[in-house]
Design brief:
single chain; about 70 residues; mainly alpha; elongated
Length: about 70
């Protein structure tokens, strides 16, 4: 039965102490006791990459322009 606080998508953390060195997808499973924790972590990683991608692309373009000016 899903807890109302969690929205029902992912179970609440079960109280297991997970070290910060644990790989992301494994830690999500261990913390929640469900594969849904790992799936949520994977979704968050994909969203993080999509958010940062335009900034990294702009930085790359700026560095290429500076590199071409130096030549």
């Amino acid at each position: 039965m899903a807890d109302k606080k969690s929205g029902g998508l992912v179970p609440l953390c079960n109280g297991t102490v997970i070290t910060w060195t644990m790989p992301p997808l494994i830690s999500g499973f261990l913390a929640t006791g469900s594969i849904a924790g790992s799936i949520l972590q994977l979704i968050n990683i994909v969203l993080d990459v999509l958010i940062y991608m335009p900034f990294m692309s702009a930085l790359n373009k700026r560095q290429l322009m500076e590199e071409n000016k130096a030549k």
